[in-house]
C-alpha cells in the first residue's frame, strides 16, 4: 500500500524545542473547573470542560497552558474533545474516542521536539481498541489543530482498561505508554514506545493477577520506578517498572481481587513523592454506604496490615480519583449524587461544599494523622467537580543518568521514517469513518471512496499542511459492505479497504 519506506537521516541539535520541558502545572477537570499551580499557593481557574471523569492537560516549561482534552458521558453527547489554551474547541478537535469514563486520555509530547503532541485514547465499553490523535501547535498562531484523529493501534476487537499510563523513558526523551487488555481471560499488558520515529508496540507482558474488570487504574510514581494499581474489586498491588526496558517486575500485592457484594469498590490509588506511602480512595459499595481515603505504609515489613482510615464520608457524596499535585499535595475529587437526580450533568442548582471543593492531603509523606487531611477545603471558585482529575504524566521526569539506555547526547543522529502512510478505521457506534495520512509529499490531496461496484460515494479535494491529512465521514446513509478508500496527491496514491457494519 503506497510507496516503500524511505529512510532519511536528519541531524538535529537537541536544544530549544527538542529538549523543551513540559509541566503538570495547569489542571483542567470537572464542570469547567481547573487549578493553576504556578504560584506558591494554587489558584482556581475556569475552563471549558464538561466531564464527569476523563481529562488531561499539558503546560509548557513556564507553566502556560498549551491545550487539554476530555470525554463527556452519553447524557451530554458521547464524544472526546480537544480545547486550545483559550478554552475554545481546537480546530478538528471533536469526535475524539472516549466513552465518558475516567482514565481514557493522556497527552505525550512528540520526542521530535517539533511542537506536536500525541493524545492517546482508550476504548473500554461502547467501542473497543486503543488509538492516538495528533495535535500540531504550529498551526493557527499557536492555538493548534488536530492533524490526525483516532489512528488505530489496537483493533476494535480488543477492549482495554480504563487506566492509561505514560512514563518517560530512561533516556529522558522517549515515552512508554501502557495499557492492558480488559479481557477476564488474560493479564496481558501492552507497552508502546514513542520515539522520534513514531509510535510502535514494543512488547507485551503477561504479569500480575488475571482480573475480571475493566476498571484497573495504573498510577506511576513521581520517579517512574513504580506503578500502583487498583480495581473496584479490591485488587491492590505495586509493580516495579524498568524505564529502560519497559517491563514490570517484582509485584507487591497488598490485597487480592474480590468478587461479589464484598468488593470494596476501590476507585483510585496514588503514591507519595517518596514512594513510602500509598493512598487509596473508595466509593460506597453494596455493603457500605461510606467513601474512604486509606493510607498504607510501604516501608513496613508487612504493608498490607498497615491500612489506616484517613477519612470517610457517607452517601450521597461519592469518592473519586486521587492525584499528586506539583505542590506535593495529594488532591481528592468527589461527586455529589443528589437523591433522585442522576449525578451527571449537575443541575445548576446542585451546588454545595462537596462539589465546589476538592479535599487534599497536605503532607502525604507523613504517617497517619500527621499527613494532615483537609476535607473539602480547596475552593474551585464557583466551579464544580465530579469523580475525575487529570491523567497527566510527570512531564519533568529526566533521564536516569549513567543508565544503560542514557543515550541522548547534545547532538544526535536520528533516523526518521518518511514513507507515506494511510490509516482508516470505522466506528460502528458513531457510524463514522476516520481517514488519516502522514508523511504525504504533495500540497493538494484528493480523497475518494468507492463501493464494490466502483461507484464514487465520496470525493473531496483539499490542501494539506506538514504532510498530514485527516477527515471523518459520517456513514449513516451508506449501505453495509466493503468500501475502498483512495488518497491521491501530486506525488503518490494510497488506498485501503474498510467494512461498514
Your description of this structure?
With 501 residues, the chain is mainly β. The chain has two domains: 373 residues, Methylamine Dehydrogenase, Chain H, CATH 2.130.10; 65 residues, Immunoglobulin-like, CATH 2.60.40.3080. Helices cover 0% and strands 48% of the residues. The protein is built from no helices and 35 strands. The strands form ten sheets. It has a four-stranded antiparallel beta sheet with strand order 8-9-10-11, with no helix packed on it. The protein has a four-stranded antiparallel beta sheet with strand order 12-13-14-15, with no helix packed on it. A four-stranded antiparallel beta sheet has the order 16-17-18-19, with no helix packed on it. A hairpin with a 6-residue loop joins strand 8 and strand 9. The protein starts with 6 loop residues before the first strand and ends with a strand.
Short descriptors:
single chain, 501 residues, mainly beta, Methylamine Dehydrogenase, Chain H, Immunoglobulin-like, 4-stranded antiparallel β-sheet, globular, disordered N terminus
Percent range for β-strand residues: over 45%
* CA-based shape: globular
Model regions low in confidence, pLDDT < 50 over at least 5 residues = 1-19
Name of the CATH architecture of the largest domain: 7 Propeller
**How many extended strands?**
35
User: Can you tell me the CATH class of the largest domain?
Assistant: Mainly Beta
Please work out how many helical segments DSSP would assign: 0
Rg estimate, integer Å: 23 Å
Class per helix and strand makeup: mainly beta
Tell me the number of structural domains.
Answer: 2
Strand order of the largest sheet: 8-9-10-11
* Helix coverage percent: under 10%
Average pLDDT works out at: 90
The CATH topology of the largest domain corresponds to: Methylamine Dehydrogenase, Chain H
Q: How far do the termini sit from each other?
A: 23 Å
Described by its quaternary structure, the protein is single chain
| Biggest sheet layout | 4 strands, antiparallel
